[in-house]
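Field reference: sequence -> structure
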Amino acid sequence: MAGILVHDWLEAHGGAEKVMEEIAGLYPDAPISTLWNDDPQRFLTERTSESWIAKTPLRKHKGLALPLMPPTWRHRGRSDADFILCASHLFAHHARFSGPARDVPKYVYTYTPARYIWEPELDERGNSAMARAASVPLRRLDAARAQEAHSIAAISEYVRERIQRTWDRDSIVVYPPVDVAGYTNGSVDDLTGEELAILESLPQGFLLGASRFIPYKRLDLVVKLGVAARRPVVLAGNGPSLPALRALSAEHPGAVWFVDRPSQPLLRELYRRAMAFVFPPIEDFGIMPVEAMAAGTPVIARNLGGASETVVHGKTGFLVSDFTGAEAVDAVNRLGEISPDECRARAVLFDRSRFHRELTAWVGS
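Structure field:
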């Protein structure tokens, strides 16, 4: 089978790109169609086909580009592929090609139906005036385009239910791939001297929050939990919320440490040294809680969303409804009950090998 792969856009960081990297490895001869490619070292330029948007400033302003994405996806040029595999969190599943690929089966691996337009209460980016104005017609169009899919796979039961509710389509669940071995194996010997110095400068018994620093990741709640539980907090990553997080940390001198854009080996060691990985957002899946468990570290996560399917309450961490009250503080105080071996065993169930088997079986069917 000679397919073509489709992805909304490609960035240097992000869970969706980790998934696409695995898909691209499973289908090494398939070209990749995307709106723009901001990681040409990982997704080689000669393999990717960008849209006209990539040649404009709109590639840096997704909100402004959003209304133009659906028509752009409908004219992605000629392809001889005999199947289309879309990995979609916005409008990639709208993709249409001319030539022999016009009428081939389209498989849609769905991170989520576009939260910007379907459930903006979960994502502040959907609350802009432009996003709100565009949401009503875009919902109708998005649901119609979803009917074109030959088959749909969701990244979690949480997303499968959203697909049924918004697109009125059945789907199967294929959990995303996690590099479990990369977080189970290895040692501090993998760190550079500078990274080792960063690690050694951190306090003992810290709570870890790590992600892109954007509002919906709710890293402020990691800080608030640390203050309530009287535990130091380490925040790892970077992004536009950094000034707000620094301002919050200034209200609690000596309570919060920042680690800028950690490498994979450094992130692994942060997981290992943390009392717990704290994961407040309502995510569609959430790769990082599984990475933390692979490192033998318990997770404190929201009792909604994808993390509630990966973290086993009382066995590999705790699922809470609130991160600032007694429930979450009690979870911190009970972390000693969690077995690192149980965490690692749970993480294995989401290893990349499982994804490889299930995805290829789904597309092969």
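Note: The chain has two domains: 3-177+352-364, 180-348.
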